[in-house]
Prior knowledge:
- With 415 residues, this protein is α/β, with parallel strands linked by helices.
- Helices cover 37% and strands 15% of the residues.
- It has two domains: 6-70 and 318-414, Aspartate Aminotransferase, domain 1; 71-316, 3-Layer(aba) Sandwich (Aspartate Aminotransferase, domain 2).
- Helix 2 (71-82) packs antiparallel against helix 11 (304-316) and helix 3 (92-104) runs parallel beside helix 11 (304-316).
- The radius of gyration is 21 Å and the shape is globular.
- The model has no long low-confidence stretch (mean pLDDT 96).
- The structure holds (4S)-4,5-diaminopentanoic acid.
Amino acid sequence: MSIGTVAAWRERAARLFPGGVNSPVRAYRAVGGEQPIMVRGQAAFAWDADGNRYIDYVGAFGPLMIGHAHPAVVEAIRTAVEAGGPFGATTPAEVRLAELIRSRMPSIERLRFVNSGTEAAMSALRVARAATGRDLVIKFEGGYHGHADSMLVDAGSGAVTLSIPGSAGVTKSVAAETLVATYNDLSSVAAQLDTHRGMVAAVIVEPVAANMGVVPPAPGFLTGLRQLTDRAGAVLIFDEVITGFRVAPGGAQELYGVTPDLTVLGKIIGGGLPVGAYGGRAELIDLVAPAGPVYQAGTLSGHPVVMAAGEATLLQLTPDVYTAIEARADRLQEGLRRAGMSVARVGSLLTVFFRDMAPVNFREAKECDTLAFGKFFHRMRAAGVLLPPSQFEAWFLSTAHYDAGIDATLAAASS
Ligand code: HOZ
C-alpha cells in the first residue's frame, strides 16, 4: 500500500484542519515553509511520508525521553490493549503509576490523573481557589500552562509564536482574574501580592520556563516564590509538564530543592500517549470530588493503556540514564556554543537563542531574531535535523540521542 507523499497528505490535511494542523506550532507559521507529514519514528529518528529521515529534537514536545517506539513501551502498550478496557473503573495500572510518581516526587502525596496538561493545570487552579476561597491567580509573562481560558493571558508556546498571547474568545472577566508577573523577578510577584493582598489563590509557574525557549530560574527565584506564597497564604503550583521526570528523577522541584503545594504533570507520565495529572498535599487534593467539593471528572482518566505506557517509560528512567543523557546534552550545548550560538540548557532541555545572550525573561526572549531562527531551522532540516519549529520551544533530547547523532547535529549547525 502506498503511503502517499508529504504534499498529498498536506493538501488533504489543509482541507480538514484549521491551518492544516491539530495544534498550532506544528503548522510552521513561525519558521515559514510547510509542515512535514510524519509517518514513523524509531529511537532518535523520525521519517516523513517521502521517506526523509531526521534526527528528531521535537520529541513530541517532551514525552519521548526514551525515544520513539522503545521496545519496553511498545510491549507494555500491546499487553494493555490486549487486556481490553478502559472499564470506567479503577485498574491496577493507575495505582502502580501513581505510586511510582509519588515515590519520585514526594511532594505529591495524593493525585488525580486527567487526559492533558491543560486539564491538569485548570484543575489545580480550581483546587487552589477552593482551598483559599480567593479568585485571583498569578502567572508569568511567557509562561504556558495549556489553553484553559484563564491561562491564555500573556501566554508562551504557540500563543507567542503566533502573536496571540491573549486568545480571542476569553472573556474580559476571566482574563481579569489572572495577574501577570515577570519570570525571574521576585519584586514583580511581591508587587502583585501586595496590591491584591488577601485575594490571590495561587502562583503558577514553570519552574524552568520552557515555552519562551528554555529560561532557567535565577538562583533564589523559586525559593523566593515559596517564601512569598507562604507569606501571602497562596498556593504555589509548579507546572512540571515539561520538566517533570526530565530535568531530574524528581523533576525541577528535586533539582532546585523547592517544594510546591501542587504539581501539574503531563508528557512523560503517559509515555507519549495523552495524559495529565495534578497532585500535591493531601489536604488540597482531598478537596476533589468525590472526597471533597471541587468537581472534576473524566471518562478516560487513568486509561490503562496510557498508564502502562507511562509506567514502562518511568521504569526506564533510572539515575544512570540522567547522567548519560545530560553528558550528551552538555556536549551538544558546548558544541553549539563553540559554533557561536547562545544556548540555554537545563538537563536534556535546551534552546539556541538568536540573541547575544540567552534571555532571563520573556521580554528578553521576545528580542530574539526570529527570522534568523527560521533560517537556521531550515538549514538544519535540510541537513536531516528536525528542530521544534519555533524560537520559543525547547529542544528535547532522548536517551536514544547517541554521540553519532550529536556529532551530526553539530556538523549541520556549523556548516
Ligand atoms: N504546547 C505545545 C508545545 N509546547 C504545542 C505543540 C504543538 O502545537 O503541536
